[in-house]
Amino acid sequence: xxxxxxxxxxxxxxxxxxxxxxxxxxxxxxxxxxxxxxxxxxxxxxxxxxxxxxxxxxxxxxxxxxxxxxxxxxxxxxxxxxxxxxxxxxxxxxxxxxxxxxxxxxxxxxxxxxxxxxxxxxxxxxxxxxxxxxxxxxxxxxxxxxxxxxxxxxxxxxxxxxxxxxxxxxxxxxxxx
Length: 177
Description:
Blueprint: E1 9-10, E2 13-14, H1 15-24, E3 32-35, H2 39-46, E4 52-55, H3 63-71, E5 80-83, H4 93-105, E6 110-115, E7 118-119, E8 123-126, H5 130-134, H6 143-148, E9 153-157, H7 170-176
Parallel strand pairs: 3-4, 6-9
Antiparallel strand pairs: 1-2, 5-8, 6-7, 6-8
């Protein structure tokens, strides 16, 4: 796309800025931003925000390395992690809070949104899955783990298609504007 997509402008900020604003306005207790490509440039755009930054030296090896980098900074007292994507700038704090509330209420280790039968993001994983998340390889997120533990998944019905919309192409980006 020419520049890191998380730095592309949207609504007076960047895609990453929109995601961070939603997280910072939510009930999330700790926010860790994983940076890789053009890390210094990305860090400059979020300076001053109350977040931790994890530097992923192995970002070219795929999404699994970002998950691992972020997990290494998670507070030892945490019970779960939410994996939110920087290319989903339309996710609201309302959706994030709904997922967090359901995680607290349900007796399930994985909580994820579902819109019109389609699973989306962000996804919450109990830290009982930390070792499995740390073993992920390549350009995969938690999908393999979800598929292995279907009996421990709680799907939260949401009224927002944004849980299924991410920006992977310039056409995707143009549709946001």
